[in-house]
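dumping the sequnces here before i forget
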Amino acid sequence: MKKISIDPITRLEGHGKIDIFLDDSGNVANAYFQVPELRGFERFCEGRPVEELPRIVPRICGV
Amino acid sequence: MAKFKLAQYWAASCGGCDVAVLDVHEKILDIAEAAELVFWPIALDFKYKDVEAMEDKSIDVCLFNGAIRNSEQKHVAELLRKKSKVMIAFGACACYGGIPGLANFTNRKEIFNTVYKETLSTVNPEGIFPKTSIEVPEGEVTLPEFFNTVKTLDQVVQVEYYIPGCPPTPKTILNAIDAIVKNQLPPIGSTLAGKKTLCDECDRKKEERKISKIYRSHEIIPDPEICLLEQGLICCGPATRSGCETRCINVNMPCRGCYGPSDEVSDQGAKLLSAVGSLADSNDEEKIKEILDEFEDPAGLFYRFSLPASLLHRKTMKGD
Ligand code: SF4
Ligand code: SF4
Ligand code: SF4
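..and the predicted 3d for all of it:
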């Protein structure tokens, strides 16, 4: 199957890509949206003093 | 005058560095006058293949923000390095690892477990974790490899200049752009901000730096005229580079070190540790220990923005 990749997705905050698969007649058979980005705030915020979190979590998204 | 070709990219970042460039307000028009943007995913629709098609060294300046956390970011860093004459690490994440660099206190396995299994809002009974490649009925889809360790940009490619800050202030950015436009960049390897420490830039009253108690920031409202460290609030000013115009201090909050180490400091956290260690107002070892014991999470505070760039680089963990 033919695959069209839109990589990266632009004009938004964050990272994403779309893979579109086309069947033999050129119609969309399926499309996959993927977020290739992970930093792990869920984990590395653990163990930090709670009053420090307002100075850490704004960096999840700065847009 | 011919415009210089400018690229901007974000790796493991929050987008704040991209937006910071817009925070220069109407001066953005001067930047637009001087620069032609050839790649900037947050704002313009160029793809990786457009960059691949460019001639080597055809981009004059690349402002690269974000740390290197996965194989896609490493690949794009290498690609942009090849295409750019001058590579600039932009913001704390690219320069020192930044907040995403706190992940070097943990590892890939723990992060995957927490994110994809343990958080209360996650339902994943089959224990599915991201894979670099999966077969789907139509073919194959791929994801970049999530590295075990976060790296700074200069641990992956050669970097000519550093613009620190989380994010850099408008003044820091404009000074840097001005130096680029006027062809007045300092020697290669320089950091485009102050040279001294934040304490040198801070105009709070400093007397004798001795403290009998360390406070957490929610426990007191500090006097706005007096050095925060002297009031018992841990402030990273003594080891942090000047240039932010004491942004946090101005709102009565202690510095957390986002401008990275100053010129004379090689390891920000180690320098802070020794600075704070000598503060305790006592000669009695027990008493000193008592004062310092109240201090929560020293490593996470002293290396808040710079763990990947530090001598420690990461926490050593079994099985890594
Ligand atoms: S340095 Fe700060 S503002 Fe810039 S991308 Fe990293 S977290 Fe965001
Ligand atoms: S420790 Fe903090 S508050 Fe005190 S002088 Fe230095 S920057 Fe200012
Ligand atoms: S005071 Fe410290 S944490 Fe705040 S902006 Fe300045 S360098 Fe960054």
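The two ends of chain B are 53 Å apart (CA to CA).
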